[in-house]
Amino acid sequence: MKEPGRDSAEFARRAAEAQCRRGFEALPAHVAVLDETGAIMLVNRAWTDFARDNGAGSGAFGVAVGVNYLDVCRRASGADATARQALVGLEAVLCGAVAHFEMEYPCDAPNERRWFLMTADALDPQLPMGAIVSHLDISGRKLAELALAESEQRYRAVFDGAAVGMAELAADGRWQRANAALLRIVGRSAEELLANAPLGALTHPDDIDAASACLEMLRAGVVDRCTMETRLVRPDGAAVWTETALSCLRADDGALAGLIAVIADISDRKRAEERQWAMMRELEHRGKNLLAVVQSIAQRSLADGRSLAEARAAFLGRLQALAATYGALIDEGFGGARLDRLVNTALAAFPHAEVEGPSFVLTVKAAQTFGLIVHELTTNAAKFGALSRPDGALRVTWDVRKTAEGAKFAFDWRERYESPAPPVETGFGATILSRIAAAEFACAPELVHAPDGFHYRFEAPLDRLGGLVPVAPLRRALASEALGAFYDQWARLRGPRGELPQLSQFDWSRFVAVGALTLASVQPKGGLSLAQIGRAAPPELQGDDPAAFRCCAEDEAPRHDRLRFDFGDGAPLGAERLLLPFSATGGAATHVLGLSILGLSILGGGDQESERGGSRR
Where are the alpha helices (DSSP H) in 41-80? Predict the structure, then answer.
């Protein structure tokens, strides 16, 4: 007789087993149950299907029920580190050393990359009764992780290697991440920047309102991107003009979660704009003055009682003198005009005239008057004085002297001839030499008409005319006038303590047509890139360029070379080259600009040796 309820209990047990079996078969992982020896007692459908699809279904080396899974792992572990790791972990679970083991491993198919997560759990953590082993396909997750890692790597490469500053900021403007270019711009270390220096703390006080307004628009959702020009202040107080582009990172609810900042140093551009505006204002001022001077010259030249032809000649001569003076001023960027150039230009047709004096730069105002004085003296000497006769001699000198009243500039024009010459005509020319010179230079000019020659002299306060320019040995060694002008512009741009000028401050465009220009960027660790600007130098002249440019950058001093090349055709080529160093924004590199002037006349035709690197400041 059956026990009451026994059939119901048996039915419930079988139903539960069937339900467990269906759940076991439905698991997405490949699952097998092992006994304490490692033999497979039970597998689910996913395990069987995977084994069949990958050629490991049945047989002595398969993974079907009855096969010892430890033996399968041992055979695979001989040449596979992953299989050895799985074997060690599975043995530890089966012997009761650990209750759980897991590992991720790759298992690629012929046409796809795959990864699996293997887990082994003891059937009884207290007794070695066997284990449940599962292999779960995690290829989707791993591929996503690899894609994310590759994306992060690309982002890091762009972020860290960008030539402009890049940063990540929190919603309140605090720095969270910054690249090396940004650290150079703001002059701070990463620790200083990220610790306690929000964007607003680095912004110039005059620009804080504009920067705050931009941030408020981003926070309010009015725009997702904003670009502004602001000044960031370095620890030493120096302000750096920057163009900052801020882009939003928003949370799911649209709130501002963070910012991406791209910051470019535009200090060079701002300085160029300031120089341009200053030059325009200067040109406007000089243009008005020039028109006033031309009007005065025209009125006085035509009011001296001369004939129309004489008045026209005098007027044109004075205009040409004024034009020559302005040409000298333009070449020097309206920083003044060299006295020796004004005098030598006026006397260019008279090579026997003696001119001697220290290097002296006239102010813009003084140059305008001095150009007219030299023109009147030269015109009178060419008509009646020393330059009009074969027995005439002219000596022009100037000097700076220390007196009890202060430094004085002395100018002396002395003509010598045997027969007397008529005195300088009264009129506007005499007015320029006497009254205008006296008023402009605060002096008392002397005009002496002696039987043996004419003498013009004045001594004026130095500050009414200009100042001496120290001439470096290298400057005196330059044979080419173009290289002299090249050097002079560079020397004027140097800082008060000899700091290298910025390349953006240098007007190299004036020298493109006179020689071969080469620009080098020399990196701190020795990297160098060369670029030819305009006319290219011959290969022979470029041969030692890398070493010469590096030497110039390392010394932070000009380098002067005289070169001679003999090509075996009886016509050797002479060249003179000057290399000038410039600092780069942020100190990342040193720029070197080289100008090469080609031509035999530079070496005098008789030099037989190369003076490569022979002259340096």
Answer: 45-53, 69-76
Helix (H) or strand (E) holding 7: helix 6-26
pTM reported for the whole predicted model: 0.40
Query: What is the C-alpha separation between 239 and 288, in angstroms, rounded?
Result: 35
Lowest mean pLDDT among 17-26, 54-63, 512-521: 54-63
Distance CA 159, CA 243 (A): 17
On whether the CB atoms of residues 606 and 599 are closer than 8 A, the answer is no
What does pLDDT average to over the chain?
78
Exposed / middle / buried, residue 499 (Cβ in 10 Å: 0-12, 13-18, 19+)? exposed
Neighbours of 26 (CB within 10 A): 10
Q: Which SS3 state, helix, strand or coil, does residue 520 take?
A: strand
CB 607 within 8 A of CB 562: yes
Q: How far apart are CA 128 and CA 171, in angstroms?
A: 56
The upper half-sphere exposure of residue 38, i.e. CA atoms within 13 Å in the direction of its Cβ, equals 17
Amino acid, single-letter form, for residue 495:
G
Question: What are φ and ψ of residue 82, in 5° steps?
Answer: -65, -45
Cα–Cα distance, 480 to 576 (Å, whole number): 8
Q: Which two tokens stand for residue 14?
A: 């079988």
Alpha-carbon torsion, ordered 337, 342, 343, 347, to 10 deg: 160
For 565, the enclosing helix (H) or strand (E) is strand 559-565
Side-chain-side CA neighbours of residue 457 (13 Å): 14
Hunting for tokens 């003179």 — which residue is that? 576
* pLDDT tens readout for residues 143-161: 888 888 787 777 777 777 6
Per-residue model confidence as pLDDT tens digits over 464-497: 988 876 667 788 788 888 888 888 888 878 776 7
Task: List pLDDT tens digits, range 84-135.
Answer: 899 999 999 988 889 999 999 888 877 888 899 999 999 888 888 899 999 9
Where are the extended beta strands (E) located within 139-238?
165-170, 175-178, 225-233
Closest CA relative to residue 114, chosen from 128, 104, 122, 123: 104
Cα(407)–Cα(564) distance, rounded to whole angstroms? 45
